[in-house]
Each structure stands twice: as structure tokens, then as C-alpha cells.
Amino acid sequence: MSTNSRWSTPAAEALRVEPGFSLVDIDTRSTPGYDGDKTTGTADLEAGRAPLEGLQERLFAQSVAGTATGSVLLVLQAMDTAGKGGIVRHVVGSVDPQGVELASFKKPTAEELEHDFLWRIEKRLPDAGRLGVFDRSHYEDVLIGRVRELAPAEEIERRYGAIVNFEAEAADLGIRVVKVMLHISKDEQRERLAERLERPDKHWKYNPSDVDERALWDEYMRAYQVAIDRTSTPVAPWHVIPADRKWYARLAVQQLLVDALEDIDPHWPAADYDVEVEKARLASS
Amino acid sequence: MSTNSRWSTPAAEALRVEPGFSLVDIDTRSTPGYDGDKTTGTADLEAGRAPLEGLQERLFAQSVAGTATGSVLLVLQAMDTAGKGGIVRHVVGSVDPQGVELASFKKPTAEELEHDFLWRIEKRLPDAGRLGVFDRSHYEDVLIGRVRELAPAEEIERRYGAIVNFEAEAADLGIRVVKVMLHISKDEQRERLAERLERPDKHWKYNPSDVDERALWDEYMRAYQVAIDRTSTPVAPWHVIPADRKWYARLAVQQLLVDALEDIDPHWPAADYDVEVEKARLASS
């Protein structure tokens, strides 16, 4: 864990869901584990770019060298406006794009609906040595899927177990599955949606359906609670990140990624050629 | 063209290949159009991040809103060590990853070899509203393809015309094709390869085949000259960027991208809903 003095508890530990967890009792303006404010948090986020970038470059080097065994998959779930896009831009965006595999899951296509809900997900698991990011994920199928009854109740039930198995298999493949729910309050969402309506340069981020889903806030919170309860496992735990403060959410995700990469502990690949021989060849070329 | 005072000639104009162009006569340490040094160039690169990011965000907004008609495709070609990776990391890396579609073309697979050389390329053309990047491209099929005689001479000949047609069709689809050759000297390449051999943290970037290809430097330069001559068109011109100075190459590519995006001139999408109605719905939600 790469900590600085302002993390009194490592982010992974402070944010990991434990038995008895209650989503509605989380203070969405809190900053678990971090004893700093926006000023220090913004500075720490900036300072954390280099360590994250460095670790990811080593991992990417392994993927190029063909020696990578591990990868990281960041799964981002959240209500609208909670800040997924900002995480992608300001946290993931600080590493070399060559090593990133970003998958945004929208409403399933007709073809995707003909298959099991995990069919389109499995195809986007990151290759060894990569940092994968799921902007929404298979969890939509037990969130909006449950709230909007997009599948029969017994199918929704089946999915929790299917997800646990799927993520266990991913972990067996060396994928560090980092599951994150960005958690904002309903009031915070109203403010953010209002800003999108106020500003013409934000109109594209607003969709009338956002308010339709917002009307079902409590049902969504219950669906999140069930999903988190049913799919938190030692190899793929959930982290619920209070996200009313964007700086904190970004800093926390950065820490979780550093943590996952340090767990892989990627080293620069050794040369698979004779360095001295190559120096001589190069000198005479 | 977004210029600052140190560009005496816009990058696109200074670098665009014109009839009579001679690759071997280019000074790879020169900085065409730019009257500055490493210090100012580095500062200008940093200052250019925000305009590039802003333009790309508008384009991405259009893609989300479904109103995008244009896209940008940066085609990067170069001899080994010329700095393609640095362009991806330091120039492309400054924009929102959500709007970027990066394709790295390696040695073709068996399946790819069963198809026309453009088969795998066409699939990776950027969607409307995106910034596509080809790290190597269909030009490999007339560069290493020609030098290494990977296809019959008449097939190589056919490809130049096929490429011109292909890129014209892409342009018709609204794709701004920005073709860049990063051009380093053979001596500069030796220094960069030597550094990769000196530093254990760079060993992964070195491959013994780099020296094999290096031995064919002059043949490669001829193949580039032919490819550039045969495929420079008004809708998809080549830009040859002297790249011994990394800061200049990055600054120049940044300018070319800004230029292409300004040509698209993306505006924030207008709301396709009634803003006042939505404000009322939100307020009562």
C-alpha cells in the first residue's frame, strides 16, 4: 500500500465492504481513512499520478515482453452524475493509454440480449498486463435489471451466483478485480443534474431518463445493497466510495489502483536476449 | 489553426509533403515552422494540452449526443525508437480516454493474412466523434512488406492505389486522416537503441530484430519515399516530422490534431429535450 501521511487507514481497508455493511448509513460527504481536505486531496491526487503511472508502465512492459501474469480490472458502478467519467479522465487518464483497455457498457444490443448477460462482459476482460476499466458492467443486470424488472425474478436471483463464479474465475486468471461503487446522495445528484441543465456546455450530459431513474432512488439503493451483499467476496470485494466530494473519490480510486498494482508487484522484464551481444551488433550497425 | 507566437508557419503547412519532396534531404534535427527551443517547446506542449482536450471533449460530446459527423484518425508511422509511444503517451494521453480509439497493429495474425491487407484496418476506423490513433497501420504493408518482400511485387504495387481509395472513402465518411511519419536519423536511432540496452528498465523496449531492420535503413527510406509519393493526396496528406528532438515531434503532432479538430469545429450539442420542462421535473423529484 502506497500511503502518504494523510491516509490514517489505507483506502482499500477503509472502503472495503464488511459483513453488516449498510449502504444507506454511509455519509456520502465523508472521506474514510483520509485526514485531509480538498486542498491536500487535490495535491495528493496530483502527487499520486507518478507512482500509478510507474507501476502501470512496468505492468505494460510485462505485457509487451509476454511475461505478464496479472492484470487489473476496475469496475465502476454508480448512479448518474456520481463521477465515473471524472475517474476515467482524471485517474485512469494519468497512465499510458497503450496499457489501458476501457469498456463502456451501454444498454445491451439485440445481439447481446440473445446471449447470457455475461457474454459481452467476458469478451472485454483485460489481457494480461493491462489495466481494464469497466464503465458500468455486469452489475447493471442486477441493478437496473432488478429495479426495472428487465428479467424474471429467478433469473435475477441466478445472476448473483453467476457473477461470483465469473469473478472468481477472473481472479484465477490473475485479474485483480477492483469493484467500486461511487456513492452520492440524492440531493447531490439533484445539484449535479441541475448544473447540467443550467450550462449549455453540459446539456449533452443530461438525459430525461436520468430523472426517471432518480424517481426510483430508494429501489436502486436496495438493489445496490443486495448486489453488494451477494457479490462481495475475498477475491473481488466491493468498495463503496463516498463521492459527494469528487476530489476524495478520485484520490480513493487512485489509491485502490496503486494497491492492486502493488499486489501484482510488476518488475521490469529481464532481457530475453544477450545484452552484450546486442551492444556489439548495434555498435557495428 | 491554433497558433502561438512561436509558430512562424502553421505546423500543418510546414510539415505537409509537397510535390518534389525528398525524405533523405530532411534535417531530422530541424524544427520546421517553430521558432523556439526545447524550453519554450516543452512549455508550449503543456500549454497546448487544454485546447486539445477542450476540442476533443466537444467532439466526444457530439458522439454521445449522436450528432457527430466527423472524426480524426492519427496514423503514426516511424522507424523503431522514433517516438510513437511518446506521442501516444504525452499528446494523445492528454485527452479524455473515453473519446480515444487506439489501435496498435502488430505483425498480422494467420487469420488476418487470409484477408486483404486492409481488412483488419477498416475494422478499426474511428467511429464518428472519436479520436482514432493507429500505432503503425496499413502502411506497414508497403514498408516492411516491400523491404522484406512479404508479398509479390505486383501486389505491393496494387496496394498504393488501394490505400488512396481507402483513405478517400474514409475522408468521405468525415474522417480527418492525419498521416505522420516521425523521422529520425540513423545515428539518433543508434543512440536510442543503445540507451535501451544500457538501462535495465528499458530492456523490454529492445528487440534484436530492431538491428536487423536497421541494417536495411536505406531500403526503408526508399520504401517510405515511394509510399509518401504514391499516397499523399489532398484529403490525406503526409506530414514528415523531424523527430530527433522529441519535444518538437510531440508539439507538432499536438498542433496537427488541434488543426484537424478545428477543421471539424465541433460545437456543444444542443439539448434534444426541453430544458425548462426538465428543470421543473428535476425540481420536483
UniProtKB/TrEMBL annotation, chains A, B:
Residues 49-265 form the Polyphosphate kinase-2-related domain. SUPFAM superfamilies: P-loop containing nucleoside triphosphate hydrolases (SSF52540). InterPro entries: P-loop_NTPase (IPR027417), PPK2-rel_1 (IPR022300), PPK2-related (IPR022488). It holds the Pfam family PPK2. This is PPK2 family polyphosphate:nucleotide phosphotransferase. It comes from Microbacterium trichothecenolyticum.
